Long-chain fatty acid--CoA ligase (Nonomuraea terrae), 453 residues
Amino acid sequence: MPVAQDVIRHAAERPSKLAACGPGGELTYAELAGKISGAARHLLRRGIGPGTIVALALADPVELLAAVLAADLAGATPLIGDHTWDRRRWSQVTAPVGPVAFVGRPLPYAAGPPVRREPRPEDPAWACFSSGSTGRPRAIVRRRASWTASFPHLSDLAGIGPDDVVLVPGPLVSSLYAFAAVHALATGATAVVPGRWPARRSLAAHLAGATVVHLVPHRLPDVVGRSGSSLRAAVVGGAALAPGTREEAGRAGLHVLAYYGATELSFVAVDVDGDGLRPFPGVEIEVRPEAGSSFGEVWVRSPWLADGYLGDAAGPLRRDRDGWVTVGDVAQPYRPGEVLRVRGRGDGAIQTGGATVVPEDVEEVLRKVPGVGDVVVVGSPHPSLGAVVTAIVEGAPPRALLEATARTGLDAAQRPRRWYGVLSLPRTATGKPARALVAARLADGDPGIRRLT
């Protein structure tokens, strides 16, 4: 069932309840339901319905949510992008997808009867990009139930209900934040969507009213123990929590639900109480051994998986004939009933100080440096930035030459902060550098990886 139908049901039951609040204003459930229905009729009258990809680039997050749910109600597939992209950038990122309907401003209201369309289970209902605007995003498509059928499980694990106020302090182009906002509305809660991480004074005001927050690990310390905060739960997705963070949150009365997943996989494993990651409901996990390594590749089978990449774009998602899927992440050996210990991310995308850096873009520049046989770029944990860009170079070029090339060929966020050298990079069966394995060895302090000075 489209999430818009949930919004319409909540509007009938609690019409004056606040549904969504953003920098441009707020809407009750009755107002949001009316806006979604009117916008869906507008789309259908323009011939935008089942089978159409709707590229959405609205700056106002409340208007963006309304447009997303209107496209879904009309039977189209909403694709959220970065509102700062110009049309040339949109043309680049949607080229593999084919023709799309572009929406760059709030959808108008069209009067008429209720939109009634019987959704099909096989309908592609959601699409999102796998990385932010610093790299070459891939558009991932999934069926409606791969998100919506997991909503009750998240509600139960985090204790989220219709009386909650859910703070979603990040851009909705990120699937982590888009999922959080849509889940809140499906649940009947209030979604607070500032569209970005709030400034200090604004954050304090948000925390005074919110009961639940969705965020990434390096932002958790920013909300723990804040004076006047009404938070009782934090849903944290992404990298592992820093040591002591959960304990500090607990002392402040904040329950932390941490999870591991990927845009292509959705939820994989969840840590409810600090005892480690265990399969999210409905998920089967295998860690398949890698020859010559103490780590293995994480494979998943579940109802929450995406269908793949729009336009058959290349990406890390792989399937076997038994329905198991991987994005190349690596973990320590695992057996059912044990804790899953993830050691590296397969897609390699680095979140650093609010920017998303795609390693391949950095590697392409650094490979041109004389003396570089090959290079792998990964993210290394950082207490305030989340991660810093780290280059592991095969060969022995001077660090000064590497840094000079980075200054002239890369944006500031893309430039490595840490440099390492290695005699030979480990490789996959296809001969490509094994990025996740390199990241795991670096984290383990492998003596074969030396710091460049």
Q: What stands out?
A: The longest strand covers residues 372-382.
